[in-house]
Specification:
2 domains, seven-stranded antiparallel beta sheet, 18 strands, globular
């Protein structure tokens, strides 16, 4: 039996009825696009109660922890961009976390026996900072009581929700790694939960009740921290309670790139989102060629730009506490022109990463807009499916495997794990400004494909004037080493054949699970409506009230 979302049906009808300013009969309270309908509903309910986008952020994120348990949660990390309408300011909230002080990255590097296995399990767990970001957001901007923002997460964890096809598939894939404790939730009858079954997570509900009532200190300093520490010591992991106690989330300045007259903002290092700006800048170098959207020549160009921008990412990744970020240099016209001149516009080039790079599609992104003009664009993750596959007993919390996404070969490379310092990430939340007002917010999961997928959505919006729905749904490409090219199966066969003739080894599968919202204004700059999208590749919902 399928879930019915009566509130969301009404909200969608309301949104669709408000296509022009003349038909708008009441102020819009806001818009949410998230990877599960229950998370979207949780955010919209907060907005309907008078909360702002920042309150709704906590409700959406916590509900996704319950309904997308394999993708994100309080055992994970993330990167958040916001627009503060009162101060007319874009801000960046970093919750990527720090490398545990006891980390020995040599154990993740050949010739250590079983070094690849160490990239999952306890040795891959890094400091989870998501909950500190939720707290920082609420302290700075919250308007509703902290305790009320976890209501839906607690309800759906305690009472259960219906397992959907994607979750069922991922539970089945991951079941061999489940302990007797986690099987109690995900395989209570002895067989992994399947589509249509109910996933009940009572321990997670108890954890959220504790956090809602006692605050985040219960996670980072109290009994939950003790449970995490015990689980790590039992499994010889690096993370310890001292890492949790010393953890923080930090407000930093974002970076900006002007593309086609629009100011595009994303996260500064330690996020590697700047690679998306290299992508934007290189694409601008070829505007005079007027490529047709979806053509073989255009997709080939994007593939070669993606390789160059990823190379730039590896060269200039930094922990801002240790080294300055050379943004002025690598976004400069001379640098981009020189890089563009090296691209092969007719043949696929091989690109071999100097290390083994895990590829993960296991992350979540969501966006929120409110009637005051505030925006949230948030990427949160556990790393791999169910992260490290470790859940400290009694907590219901999946712990991340983010150390697998630090780069360990060769030793000392810019992305290598440095104990006690920031962990670099590939998250790329985006906010786009037009005439000094918020115009859109978007982002996607996808591991190393994130900084390839997000620019393609931006090109669709700004170069090809697509709606957010069409820009996200349109077929995408992404390179894989050494010259494999992921091409979504919706790309016409004739185009795929042309790409093969150029030397690309074409591989078909989906890219990302993006979410976005666009703010539509009248001639006076007032918000008329929101137009957004949940990626058809996923299970999400975009809706407004």
């Amino acid at each position: 039996m399928k879930h019915v979302y009566p509130l969301l049906v009404l909200l969608l009808l309301s949104l669709n009825a408000c296509q022009t300013a003349e038909k708008q009969t009441a102020p819009l309270k806001g818009f949410v696009s998230a990877a599960h309908p229950l998370a979207t509903q949780a955010g919209l309910e907060v907005l309907a109660k008078g909360g702002n986008a920042f309150d709704a952020f906590i409700a959406v994120a916590s509900t996704l922890n319950v309904t997308e348990p394999m993708m994100s949660g309080i055992g994970g990390y993330g990167t958040i961009l916001i627009y503060d309408a009162k101060k007319s300011q874009v801000r960046y909230l970093n919750s990527s976390g720090r490398i545990p002080v006891g980390t020995n990255s040599d154990l993740m590097r050949a010739p250590t026996p079983n070094f690849m296995e160490n990239r999952t399990g306890a040795k891959a767990v890094s400091t989870p900072s998501n909950l500190h970001a939720w707290e920082a957001m609420h302290k700075e901007y919250g308007s509703l009581e902290w305790t009320s923002l976890f209501d839906r997460a607690i309800e759906h964890a305690e009472n259960g929700f219906e397992v959907y096809p994607l979750l069922a598939r991922f539970i089945e894939m991951s079941a061999p790694d489940f302990t007797d404790y986690t099987k109690g939730f995900y395989a209570p009858s002895g067989m992994p939960l399947g589509e249509g079954d109910q996933l009940v997570q009572k321990d997670l509900a108890t954890t959220f009740k504790q956090i809602a009532n006692a605050g985040v200190a219960s996670f980072y300093e109290g009994s939950i921290a003790d449970a995490i520490d015990n689980a790590m010591q039992q499994r010889d992991g690096f993370l310890r309670k001292v890492d949790l106690v010393n953890d923080t989330a930090e407000w930093w300045e974002p970076i900006k790139y002007n593309y086609q007259g629009y100011d595009v903002y994303t996260a500064a290092p330690p996020s590697n989102a700047f690679a998306a700006f290299t992508f934007l800048g290189l694409n601008e170098q070829f505007k005079d060629k007027q490529y047709q959207s979806g053509s073989a020549n255009y997709l080939h160009l994007l593939a070669e730009i993606a390789k160059a921008s990823y190379s730039s990412r590896l060269l200039y990744s930094v922990d801002p506490e240790l080294d300055p970020f050379p943004g002025d240099s690598i976004f400069s016209a001379p640098y981009l022109a020189a890089l563009a001149s090296q691209l092969n516009l007719t043949e696929a080039t091989e690109y071999q990463l100097p290390f083994t790079s895990p590829n993960s599609m296991n992350t979540t992104h969501f966006v929120i807009a409110d009637s005051e003009g505030n925006l949230v664009s948030a990427t949160q993750t556990l790393g791999n499916l169910f992260g490290s596959r470790i859940m400290p007993e009694g907590t219901g919390i999946w712990l991340n495997n983010s150390l697998a996404y630090c780069t360990y070969e060769p030793k000392g490379n810019p992305m290598d794990a440095k104990p006690g310092h920031h962990k670099l990430s590939g998250d790329c939340p985006v906010i786009i400004m037009k005439d000094n007002q918020p115009w859109a917010a978007l982002g996607s999961p996808g591991g190393h494909t994130i900084t390839q997928n997000v620019p393609q959505i931006i090109f669709n919006l700004l170069d090809f004037q697509m709606t957010m729905v069409d820009a996200i749904a349109a077929p995408k490409i992404s390179f894989e080493e050494p010259n494999n090219l992921i091409v979504e199966s919706t790309v016409p066969t004739v185009v795929q054949d042309s790409l093969r003739q150029m030397g690309h080894q074409v591989v078909n599968h989906n890219i990302g699970n993006a979410h976005g919202v666009q703010i539509i204004r009248d001639e006076n700059g007032n918000i008329v409506r929101f137009e957004g999208a949940a990626d058809p590749r996923g299970h999400g919902l975009a809706a407004g009230n």
